[in-house]
Design goal:
Order of helices and strands: HHHEHEHEHEEHEHEHHHH
Helix content: 40-55%
CATH architecture of the largest domain: 3-Layer(aba) Sandwich
CATH topology of the largest domain: Rossmann fold
Distance between the termini: 30 Å
CATH superfamily of the largest domain: P-loop containing nucleotide triphosphate hydrolases
Number of domains: 3
Radius of gyration: 21 Å
Number of strands: 7
Shape: globular
Mean pLDDT: 82
Structural class: alpha/beta
Strand content: 5-15%
Strand order of the largest sheet: 3-2-4-1-5-6-7
Length: about 300
């Protein structure tokens, strides 16, 4: 794993791909790989999320072009829906970014959501940490098409960009209950279509009336037409402005702590699950006792935790 990381840092794309595969597959070498990562935390970590069909992949591709104009190395983690047959990613997002395929300063990795709720893959955060460690300046995490409650991206990035578009029904209303509340920047894409101004008005009204009005950061609204690049420089400027605020206010450090807390919680739960799998017969026996009413679920949990602490 140490040699693999050295090769990835030196620019070996195949080594980097193999390291990310270790993370996705959860192989026994995973702990060794993560333990050997330098903790740089220098990359600009951006999340691009939103409902299906609003142009997230096109916006991501346009962002790549803008950052490459600045000479920055860009990595993209595009989380695609899982194939119901193989469990792998369907690669739809990656296909839409083919114009960057031959650019050595761009690395694009499709990741399967593998049924994970929340719009991300369970391996996304660890993969982003690897990309940061090997020296990418900008890391863009693009979620699958999300709905109201799929807000995992807020715990994985420093800046959340929520993409909406006119002509997709009442887009603001559809997202209002969840993802609108976690966005740092709103992008009204396909601004050349009728209804874009209406979406902007709705967002401004929501910001004025919602919880964001009491926050120290007021989300910005940017209109874009990602297919032509219109408005993308404004979006890059808004991301930079939020990043500067997040660093100065301590919000970026706070989000980093929250990410570490979430990762630790998941690691603990995974460890408990592994222990239960190793003691499957005892777990099955206890489940049967719960089903028969001999013991309550709460008492069964207490017994499981007691057995784990003694093992």
């Amino acid at each position: 794993m140490h040699s693999l990381l050295e090769a990835a840092v030196a620019g070996d794309v195949r080594a980097l791909g193999k390291a990310l595969s270790v993370i996705e597959d959860g192989t026994p070498e995973l702990n060794e790989l993560l333990a050997g990562l330098p903790n740089s935390g220098n990359a600009l970590l951006i999340g691009v999320t939103g409902p299906p069909g609003v142009g997230k992949s096109t916006t991501t591709g346009a962002l790549i072009s803008e950052y490459r104009k600045q000479g920055l190395r860009v990595a993209v983690l595009a989380v695609d829906p899982s194939s119901p047959v193989t469990g792998g990613a369907l690669l739809g997002d990656r296909i839409r970014m083919q114009e960057h395929a031959l650019d050595e300063g761009v690395f694009i990795r499709s990741m399967s959501s593998r049924g994970q709720l929340g719009g991300l893959s369970s391996a996304t955060q660890a993969a982003a940490k690897v990309l940061d460690a090997v020296g990418f300046d900008v890391i863009i995490v693009e979620t699958v098409g999300v709905g109201q409650s799929e807000v995992d991206v807020v715990n994985a990035v420093d800046t959340v960009v929520l993409v909406l578009a006119p002509g997709a029904g009442d887009g603001v209303q559809a997202a209002k209950a969840g993802i609108l509340e976690i966005a740092d920047i709103y992008v009204v894409n396909k601004a050349d279509r009728d209804g874009a101004e209406g979406v902007v008005r709705e967002l401004r009204s929501m910001i004025g009336l919602g919880s964001q009005a009491n926050a120290s950061w007021t989300p910005e609204i940017v209109t874009t037409t990602a297919t032509t690049g219109q408005g993308l420089s404004d979006l890059v400027a808004a991301i930079s402005k939020h990043h500067d605020w997040a660093v100065a206010s301590g919000d970026r450090a706070l989000r980093s702590v929250e990410r570490a807390k979430l990762n630790l919680r998941r690691a603990v739960l995974d460890s408990v699950a592994d222990q239960l799998n190793l003691n499957a017969s005892a777990f099955d026996s206890l489940s049967a006792r719960v089903a028969s009413g001999e013991i309550s679920t709460e008492l069964a949990v207490e017994q499981i935790l007691r057995d784990l602490s003694n093992s």
